[in-house]
Description:
Layout: E1 18-26, H1 31-37, E2 46-53, E3 57-64, H2 67-76, E4 81-90, H3 96-106, E5 113-116, E6 126-130, H4 134-143, E7 148-149
Antiparallel strand pairs: 1-3, 1-4, 2-3, 4-6, 4-7, 5-6
Amino acid sequence: MPTQYGFEPAETFRSPTVRQISVFLDDRVGALLRLFQAFEGSDVRVVGMSVVHAIDCAIVRLICDNNEEAIKRLKEKSFPFTETELVVVEVPHGHGLRSICSALLAGEVNIDYAYPLLTRPTGRAALAIHTDEIETAIKLLQGRQFAVMTEDDLGDGPRR
Length: 160
């Protein structure tokens, strides 16, 4: 809740980032299916996904609409995973990808990797971006009027 001066107390301020869950899978037939089966019977939806294959394993990067439940399920099934913060930005119509890259280039922010979201409540395309300069990226994008999303924007409403 903002104070009389219009600022939020530090304990309620949340940076507009989205957590990515990176799951490490053995290179075996059916491994990806077993990962998705971990979410069966829950209200977890995968809204973004990237798979990077290595010689003997795969890293599956997931953005879920209910990270707390997703993490609980992964722990129960003993999947090794890590969490990382990303910037997720809505892609405007027209030259959206070019304009996002241009905004980040203006601040000399390097994109380590990026991938699109699969679903969005607004129906607009969105791009998940990993960078080592996340706060700078957010300021640059918001400064150019891009819609930077939070985890609450991924589902049907707040889950916290």
